[in-house]
Amino acid sequence: MKTIKCEVCNEEVLLDGSFTCTCHNCGANYNTFGQRLANTSQWGYETGELITDIYNDQEDW
Ligand SMILES: [Zn+2]
Questions:
Q1: Terminus of the chain with fewer CB atoms < 10 Å: N or C?
Q2: What distance in angstroms lies between residue 20's CA and the mean position of ligand 1's atoms?
Q3: Smallest Cα–Cα separation from 37: which of 49, 24, 28?
């Protein structure tokens, strides 16, 4: 286990080995490697956009 500094509020965030670690102070999410994650809602939105773009490209072919 190790701790990182939260990019948002500089609070210490404990990486306990679980897939997502949340800053207890501001709620920012980090993965096991201490990389900051976007909100889950934003993830789904961005992924959906990307998939649509890919399908559009394939239709052009
Ligand atoms: Zn924080």
A1: C
A2: 14
A3: 28
Q: How far is the CA of 59 from the centre of ligand 1 (A)?
A: 43
pTM: predicted TM-score of the whole model, two decimal places: 0.60
Write out the two tokens for 12: 């210490």
Alpha carbon of 29 to ligand 1 centroid (Å): 8
Ligand 1 midpoint to CA 8 (Å): 5
- For 25, other C-beta atoms within 10 Å of its C-beta total 13
Count of positions (residues) in the chain: 61
Write out pLDDT tens, residues 11-60: 999 998 888 999 999 999 999 999 999 865 555 555 555 555 656 666 66
